[in-house]
Each structure stands twice: as C-alpha cells, then as structure tokens.
Design brief:
single chain, about 750 residues, alpha+beta, Hypothetical protein af1432, Beta Polymerase, domain 2, Ubiquitin-like (UB roll), 6 domains, four-stranded mixed sheet, about 50% helix, elongated
Length: about 750
C-alpha cells in the first residue's frame, strides 16, 4: 500500500511492465500528458487526481492488462474533472481508449444510485431486506451489462481499490469512507470474485470491512495473534513439509496456500455463528491431484503428518454438496497446536468449483446452492476462465503480441447482451429484454402506469415511445391525468416496434379485451332495455329476470344478448310467463339419449356376411339407420365400422383399402324399441316461433331430440338436430311434416 506522489522511473517501470516497445511508448506518452493535464486537480475524496490516476493505472498493470486499458485508467478521471478534455482523447490515444473512458464514466454515475440504495432504504422487515438484496444484485448485473467492453469493469475495480488504499493510508474513518466501503463491498468485491480477480477481491473486502466495521476488524486482527505474513509463512512451511512427504511417496500434486482474510473470517463467524476458537480454517491450503484415488491417498499422508481433529472431516466426493461441489475437507492440529485445514480435490473438481456452474461466488455469498441465475452464471464462469487463461499465458509467454491481441479481442467480445438495465428517476433499476421501449418500461413499473403512459423522457429528453432503451439510461414516464381506469393504451402499441416484452403485449391485449367486453355488455344492456320498453315492463327486477332465464347474474344475460347468443324472444316470453319455470317459445326440449339407443350400447342388429357375434360400430360420420343400405369396413382394433353405402368417407377408405370392405346387412337382432341417432338439417326463414313449431312435430312423432345447433344470419335460420329414430320411415314422415311448416325452405337428413 504505497502512495505514489509523482511520476518517477519506478512508477514508469510499473506502468509499462509486460508491454511491447510501441505500447510502452504510448503509455509513457499518456503519463506525460496526464501529468500536465491534471496539474493540482483533486478527486472527490480530496486526493491528488494525478496520484489517483497513476494508482489506478499501476493496479491495471499489476493485472497484466493491455496498453489501452492502462491509458484509460490514466485518463478517465480527467474526463470527469474536465469534460472538455474528452474530445482530445480519441485523436491522441485512439477510439478504444476513448470508449473505455466513456464506459467508466457511465459506471461512475452509479455512485449516486448506490448511495440512494444504501441511504434511503425504505420499509422494514424481511420483505424490505429481500428487496434490498435483490436490488443490489440487479446493480451488480447492471455493472457488467453496461460495459460493452469488459475492460471497463477492470478499470472500475482498480479505481475502487486505489481509493480504499488512500483512505487506509490516511486512516480516514467517517461517514464518507463508511458509505464508500459499503458500496464497494456490496457491488464491486462480488464482481471481482465473479471475474476471478482474486488479487483485488480480498483487498476490496478487507479494506471495505475495515471502514464499515472498524471495531470488528480490529478485534479479529488482534485475535489472529499473527500478522498476515506470519500466517502465510506458516502455511508455506506446512506446504513444504507436505510436498516432501508426497514426493517420497511418489505422488504428484500441486499444493498451494489458502490464507483466510479478515473479512472472510468475520463473515464465516457470523454466518455459522462460530466462536473464533472454533474456526478451523483460519489457516488452510489446497492439494490438487490427478484422480479420485490419489485424493484419498493424500488424505492418509496428511493424517500421518498431523493429528486429525475428530468430527472435522467432510467427504464431499462421495457425498457432494447440493450445488455439485466436491472435495475432501479435513482439519488437523499443526506443530504449534493450532488447527490447519486441508482441502484435497482433483483438477476437474477444482475447475468446477472455481469456474463451473457450481458458481463459487454464489456459494460464498449466499451460503448455499441457488441455480436461479444459472444461464447468467455460465457467462460469468466463462469470463472467469478467460481471465485465468490470460494470466497464465502472460506468465508463460513474454513478447508475443499475437497472444496479447487474442486475449484482448476475446475479452472485448465477452459482453452480456441479452438483458438491459434501466433506471427510474428514483434510482430503481429495472431489468428488461434487449430492444425494450418506454412502453415496456412503463408496464414493468406497474400495469396502471403502462395503461396511462402518454410520453417518456430518457435522460431528461423527450423521446418517441418506440425508442429502444439502452443500458444505464434513466427513463421517466409521463402519464395521463384522471381517475384510474379512465385512460388506456393505444392499439398502435401492439404493432411492431412499440413493445418487445411478451408480458407487456399480454397486458395491452387484456386491456382491449376488457374494453370489448364492456362494449358488448353495454350493447346487450341497451337491447334488453329496449325490449322491456316495447313490452311496457321497464320496472321489472332485472336480477330476477336473469335468474329466471338461467343466468347467475344480470351481466351474463347482457353479454349473451350482446354476443347474439341469446334471443330477445326468450326475454319477452319470460315477461309474459307467470310460472316459476320459463320455457321460451323458441326453445327445443333436448332430452337424454334413451337406454335402447345404440349410442348407449344397444345391439345395432347388423349382420356381417351372415355371421353374428362380430363387433360392429355404427359410423358417426353418416349415422346409418334401418333400412339404409349399409356396408362394412374392417378397422384396426374397433371391429367393423358400419357406413351408409352413400357415405363419402367410406368411398375414400374403399379407394385406399378395398380389401378391408366387407358385406353387411340389417338383421333381426335389434329389438323393436332400438333407436338410432341421425342428423337432420333444416333451412328456414327466421321468424318468431319457428323452433317451437319444429319441436312440436318431433314431440308428436315421438322422436327424441338429443342435440341441437342453430345459426341465424341474414334472415335465415340454419338448424341441425341430432334425433333418435327407430327407422328411416319414421324420419321421412317427420321431415314431410316439417317441410309444411311456415318458412321452412329445406328439411333433410344430413
């Protein structure tokens, strides 16, 4: 934690470490420009702006970043202090540097947002806490999504750790440092963890914790009874001893330390409600081997070197954690009598724990498994792998600019572009699909806000409602005045370009459906009231009338009349009827199918090639009845299907499979009272009393009607009846009588 007071040779060497000669020259040119441009300017914390910029760039150099990232680290603070200088950056240092600086400025805007979240937390209780956690999580995602180039996030993390180092250097403990520490711990430390930047992650956590909980920090530091270097020294000696024992046993393994940091210790003590004396993994290291068998072999070696602590052994290989995590955990007593934790795992297990969908960050931050954001986590896991790969190749390959360029290009392409994050003027963040418009934004806020939306401002400027929103923008919805329900959406919003969210479109459709229902209801009400005026019954109880006609509520009657599903003649009939039960004059009494019907299982009386006992089924397409000329068709699994000889369906089946046609005839097996269902079609001019007249004929001819369907249009009524007859002679007699009914144009069997 060294303060950089002015550019010097050591500083210059740090800034250009690992770069090619041309890149070194560019970075040094940027340093000279920054030195002159910053002058005596100061940051918001009162620090020299030049010192801050150099500190950021030096941290980025430590992360082995490319030249553009380091130059952006030098320049972004200047563009905040002197916005006019932003125009000079692109021509002097290139578009990449300019875009990176712009991206960092966008992220800096989140400071006001996060402060609003931390300081103005409304509400109390569990729900308020859950909302706060969800909001912070959304902000983390927003940070990544806003960065079209992931290097922007790296610069922001470097800026945070540089600022915290400055606070620690000056030992500043006030409200400003506490709030900054809270912001960093909530947002930026988890991001560093997710991206695999461990060098920054632990420092961000420890420094933030130092300002948030200074007393707890001091207490834990004191309880450790040793400084960090001493802890790391002990772990190193323990690693050396284990490596020696493993080598003598012929076991190849990678052993590295895992010293716990102050914040990590405090978090575990709090999360597990442990006393410090019961915390076994203050000092720890990992052993990485080739296969599972070797894991258990190494476990035996560890237990031979040090004494294991009873009940502190966990076998997560044979019994993995719910999130898929696998490893052997054991706690042993070291030479100094203090506990030492050892984790043993294979390379595959380690890779999964560090980078896979097990999401190490989620386990650490939430203490359990949670795959709700698995798709998002997979992207983050890939980014973490990318960062780890970059560090490995940077260590192994020096001066190979092609590798460096490949790294940069892959990092630049690692964007999270499936969602966008837009803010309200009150600092609330909404997660929306890419391409979302102010209309989507309004409905996401609240359905009523969406219905009443009449305009929108994006970053304070009026925009059309079909404008596509972008990450980090602030959107304000202008709503119509008046009582709720008095304003509604435009039908244009259902056209392309206004709403991309399925949720938004469904809410708009629901509004217009409700409007259509209201219009139908009003139309039906008007028709019923007009009918009542005609009959001189305006004082009638509408609720009682609706119930008399079979409707639970009067609105159901109005809707049915408005949709032309219920005739006003039924209403008029009910007005003149004094009985308890109303049978409208145009109604057909529909009965149940008789027990003697072939529909109910009665024998059809069909003989198949002179043989009884074969399973036969009367076809529903033509509904044959004696003495129709019939023919059989052998089906698969349903016996013989009996059709009328004139059936069109049968003609098609016979053309395809003539070998399955079989001779059939009506026999005498059917009882005298056996009835057969048939369809009857009637076309007539629509008039009052038509259905009543036809119904009377069916009743007189002792024909049971089991189904009816009527349609009326352009003054004509088209009616289809399903009736049960004993023979076609009975049907023909009824049809001849029906043809004589006034208004009937056609009556036939269908």
């Amino acid at each position: 934690m060294v303060s950089i007071s002015a550019p010097n040779s050591a500083t210059s060497e740090q800034l250009v470490e690992g770069l090619s000669a041309p890149d070194c020259a560019r970075v040094l040119d940027a340093l000279a420009y920054a030195t002159e441009a910053y002058g005596d300017k100061q940051t918001f914390a009162g620090r020299s702006a030049l010192d801050f910029a150099i500190g950021v760039a030096t941290t980025l150099a430590f992360l082995r970043s490319d030249a553009e990232t380091r130059i952006a680290g030098l320049m972004f603070e200047l563009t905040l202090l002197e916005p006019d200088t932003a125009a000079d950056i692109e021509p002097r240092f290139g578009k990449q540097v300019c875009d990176l600086a712009t991206g960092v400025r966008q992220l800096i805007r989140l400071r006001a947002l996060t402060q609003a979240q931390h300081g103005g937390a409304g509400g109390r209780g569990k729900n308020a806490a859950q909302q706060a956690v969800a909001q912070v999580e959304t902000l983390r995602k927003m940070l990544l999504a806003m960065a079209s180039d992931m290097r922007v996030v790296l610069v922001r993390l470097a800026a945070c750790v540089t600022t915290l180092r400055y606070f620690a250097e000056l030992k500043l403990f006030n409200e400003m440092t506490r709030e900054y520490g809270k912001e960093t711990l909530d947002l930026y430390a988890p991001l560093a963890n997710r991206l695999g930047i461990w060098q920054l992650k632990w420092e961000l956590e420890d420094l933030s914790f130092r300002f948030i909980e200074p007393e707890a920090y001091k207490r834990i530091a004191k309880m450790l009874e040793e400084k960090r270097m001493m802890r790391e020294g002990f772990v190193s000696s323990a690693i050396l001893r284990l490596q020696t024992e493993l080598a003598s046993a012929g076991i190849q393994a990678e052993v590295f330390g895992r010293p716990k940091h102050i914040y990590s210790i405090w978090n575990k003590m709090r999360g597990k409600e442990l006393d410090f004396t019961a915390l076994y993994d203050v000092r720890a290291f990992r052993v990485i081997v080739a296969d599972v068998k070797t894991c258990y072999t190494v476990l035996g070696v560890v237990h031979n070197i040090w004494t294991p602590i009873p009940k502190e052994f966990d076998d997560y290989i044979s019994r993995p954690k719910p999130n898929g995590y696998q490893s052997l955990h054991t706690v042993v007593t070291a030479e100094d009598g203090r506990p030492l934790e050892v984790q043993i795992r294979t390379n595959e297990m380690h890779s999964f724990a560090e980078y896979g969908v097990a999401a190490h960050w989620r386990y650490k931050e939430e203490g359990g498994s949670n795959f709700a954001g698995q798709k998002y986590d997979e992207k983050i896991a890939w980014l973490r792998q990318l960062l780890a790969w970059k560090t490995e190749v940077a260590d192994a390959v020096v001066g190979q600019e092609e590798i460096q360029r490949e790294w940069v290009e892959k990092l630049k392409s690692a964007t999270l572009d499936d969602r966008i994050f837009v803010m309200t003027p009150q600092a609330r963040v909404l997660e929306l699909p890419v391409g979302a418009t102010p209309v989507d934004f309004a409905y996401h806020l609240h359905t009523d806000v969406g219905h009443r939306c009449r305009g929108a401002k994006v970053d304070g400027i009026m925009v059309p409602l079909n404008t596509q929103l972008k990450n980090g923008q602030t959107c304000e919805i202008i709503t119509a005045k008046g009582a709720p329900g008095t304003a509604g959406p435009s039908r244009d919003w259902l056209s392309a370009g206004y709403a991309v969210s399925t949720r938004t479109r469904s809410k708009i459709r629901a509004w217009f459906h409700a409007i259509d229902m209201q219009e139908t209801l009003a139309h039906g009400r008007a028709l019923v009231e007009k009918s009542l005026q005609r009959e001189g019954k305006t004082a009638v109880n509408l609720e009682a009338l609706a119930q008399k006609l079979g409707f639970a509520k009067v609105d159901e009657l109005f809707l049915s009349v408005g949709k032309d599903e219920f005739s006003l003649r039924h209403v008029e009939q009910a007005l003149h009827d004094n009985g308890e039960v109303v049978v409208p004059e145009d109604a057909v009494l529909v009965g149940k199918s008789r027990a003697s019907s072939v529909e109910q299982g009665a024998k059809s009386g069909v003989l198949v090639v002179g043989t009884e006992g074969l399973m036969t089924v009367l076809a529903k397409c033509c509904k044959p009845a004696p003495p129709d000329s019939i023919v059989g068709f052998v089906t698969r699994g349903k016996g013989v299907s009996i059709h009328r000889a004139t059936c069109k369906n049968f003609e098609e089946m016979r053309a395809k499979s003539p070998e399955r046609v079989i001779f059939t005839e009506w026999g005498s097996t059917g009882g005298h009272d056996t009835v057969y269902p048939v369809d009857i079609f009637i076309l007539a001019g629509d008039r009052q009393g038509l259905l009543r007249d036809i119904s009377e004929i069916f009743s007189r001819e002792k024909i049971n009607v089991i189904g009816v369907n009527t349609q009326s249009a352009k003054g004509q009524a088209r009616m289809t009846f399903t009736a049960e007859i004993s023979s076609t002679a009975q049907l023909l007699k009824a049809l001849n009588v029906i043809k004589d009914v006034s208004g009937v144009l056609e009556a036939r069997r269908s």
